[in-house]
Amino acid sequence: MKGIENLGKILGLVIALFYFLFFQGNETYEYVFFVLVLVTVGIPHGAVDHLLVSPHLTKSKLISFLLKYIGIIAIYLIAWFFLPQISLIAFLIMSAYHFGQSHFIQSEIQKLKKTTYMLVGGFYLSIILWSDFSYTQKLLSSLINIENLESYGPGLIFFTFILSNILTAYNQPSRASFHILESVVLGFVLYHLPLLLGFIIYFGFWHALPSMNEEYRSLKKFLGENKRSNFLKKLMPFTALSLAGMWILLMLFYPSMTENELILLFFILISLISAPHIWFMNRFLESKKA
Ligand SMILES: CC1=C(/C=C/C(C)=C/C=C/C(C)=C/C=O)C(C)(C)CCC1
Asked: Which parts pass through the membrane (predicted)?
């Protein structure tokens, strides 16, 4: 099913191309694709974490999984309340690692694995956040003032670009030119897109879809006859639960918050469900390679 990943990446580039050609500055275009990609691949890719622990979960194992999952969410929620800035930094570090990891789902990194993940994910994340810095700054303004970080962007992007490519080339010499080309082309596209569209294209098609594809590959033998439709059915419950939960919370705060505050709240909610997901996904991906 490598085909679906490539198809997703082409679709991501086509969405970007249409934006550049016909929809520059059109917020409706940005929001429509943000929601579409989030609902179809973004959220679902984290909805079978319980099955990655074990495809045939007993009731007691499911309960213990849920307790751990909810426990991590609860601790992180408390952290957001009392240490919001540290929680934000932790979110960005976890995300860089997690995003970088998904570039190497089907290949192995031998040397400086975690550093490579961090640098690859850090490169794409810094392009996304710094290329539309004034909007990133606005979204974060109720939490932290990042005004004086703007000038660090080009250096950070350059540093992570060079080092991530050196490390990937060192680990995978035969794929070096592919990684360099990908980081130049995708980096260029993300740099010219507005924040939310750049984020969702990268998140959906370079992270969520490849991760979901890997989940499908590893669960395939337990999915009976109609593998694809059974897999989709398995994605449904936790996808619906997460979307409904986020929707209710956003609606609850809607009357008292500005648009930017609601978007930030949305990302904080994403961070809460991402923290346990990143933990379980890391265990799943790394144990598969061991
Ligand atoms: C785009 C964006 C942000 C970062 C979002 C990140 C880092 C999301 C990570 C999601 C993950 C890791 C999902 C897991 O599967 C900020 C800085 C919060 C606010 C400005 C807009």
From this structure: 7-25, 31-53, 117-135, 155-172, 184-209, 235-255, 262-280
Query: Which residue minimizes the CA distance to atom 5 of ligand 1?
Result: 267
CA–centroid distance, residue 137 to ligand 1 (Å): 13
Q: Are 104 and 93 in contact (CB under 8 A)?
A: no
ipTM for the complex shown? 0.98
Return the pLDDT at 106: 87
Question: In this predicted structure, what is the pLDDT of residue 1?
Answer: 59
What is the distance between the alpha carbons of residues 229 and 270, in angstroms, rounded to a whole number?
Answer: 26
**Which residues, judged by CB distance below 6 Å to any ligand atom, belong to the binding site of ligand 1?**
46, 91-92, 95, 98, 129, 136, 139-140, 195, 199, 267, 270, 274, 277
Q: Whose CA is nearest to atom 1 of ligand 1?
A: 199
The 10s digit of each residue's pLDDT in 124-159 is 999 999 999 999 999 999 999 999 999 999 999 999
